[in-house]
Write a sequence for this structure.
């Protein structure tokens, strides 16, 4: 399908999904009201959620079409600030953990990193049926990524080895999938995020660097933030907790600046998770 027609189609699909106001959209609006500092979903939150759904469907359209994009498009339309922090560490032989939220198009950002000469390792949430999961793995591997299934210690050990080898690891870490995440303060309330990125940094000495992403018209944009250093004192658990809180604070800053590109249709805050999430 011609790209212009596909974009119109996906925008229409986004609007239809938004109008139907299913469970995902309702949760998105509960999340956005916290970002905007509101006690309830109102007209402003609803208007923002419509923009988010259009951004989210744009992400999926671009994911489906990404194998068709050539290097010039992937690199030429990417606007990145602070990327020298990544390359300086890698060139010095130090592993880098890039911690990202569900913002903008992180698949495209990954393809950009590969085109810079730095293939990386990541993990993928297990999907059902398994054939669907395998298709996502094959797609990402076709872009030059090493994809590990989300299987706890096995995946952690392999990522740690890649980091010790001076390679990058990319992790999306604004939502906990393990039910053993770390409680952090996030937009004035307690949220739960995985501590895996910080734990890898503490164990391997790799640089933990948060990245936030968004759209700028036809361009993709990303900001590579400053490294989150490991505390010099405290137990391993205390150090991981402190670093995860710092990552959450960076995500908070990035999401507040570009809330329309935070694609979070799932539960993040402990209040929403309830007892089942404890």
């Amino acid at each position: 399908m011609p790209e212009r027609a596909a974009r119109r189609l996906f925008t229409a699909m986004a609007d239809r999904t938004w109008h139907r106001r299913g469970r995902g959209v309702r949760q998105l609006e509960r999340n956005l009201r916290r970002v905007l500092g509101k006690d309830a979903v109102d007209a402003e939150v609803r208007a923002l959620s419509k923009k988010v759904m259009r951004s989210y469907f744009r992400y999926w359209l671009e994911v489906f079409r990404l194998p068709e994009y050539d290097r010039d498009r992937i690199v030429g339309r990417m606007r990145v600030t602070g990327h020298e922090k990544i390359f300086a560490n890698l060139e010095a032989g130090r592993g880098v953990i890039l911690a990202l939220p569900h913002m903008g198009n992180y698949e495209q950002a990954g393809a950009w990193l590969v085109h810079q000469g730095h293939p990386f390792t990541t993990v993928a949430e297990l999907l059902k049926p398994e054939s669907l999961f395998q298709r996502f793995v094959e797609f990402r591997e076709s872009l030059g990524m090493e994809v590990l299934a989300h299987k706890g210690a096995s995946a952690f050990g392999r990522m740690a080895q890649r980091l010790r080898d001076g390679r990058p690891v990319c992790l999306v870490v604004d939502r906990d999938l393990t039910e053993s995440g770390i409680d952090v303060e996030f937009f004035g309330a307690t949220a739960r995020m995985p501590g895996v990125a910080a734990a890898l940094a503490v164990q391997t000495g790799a640089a933990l660097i948060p990245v936030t992403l968004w759209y700028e018209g036809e361009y993709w944009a990303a900001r590579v933030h400053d490294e989150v250093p490991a505390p010099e004192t405290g137990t391993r658990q205390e150090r991981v907790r402190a670093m995860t809180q710092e990552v959450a604070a960076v995500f908070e800053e990035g999401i507040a600046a570009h809330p329309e590109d935070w694609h979070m249709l799932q539960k993040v805050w402990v209040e929403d998770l309830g007892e089942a999430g404890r």
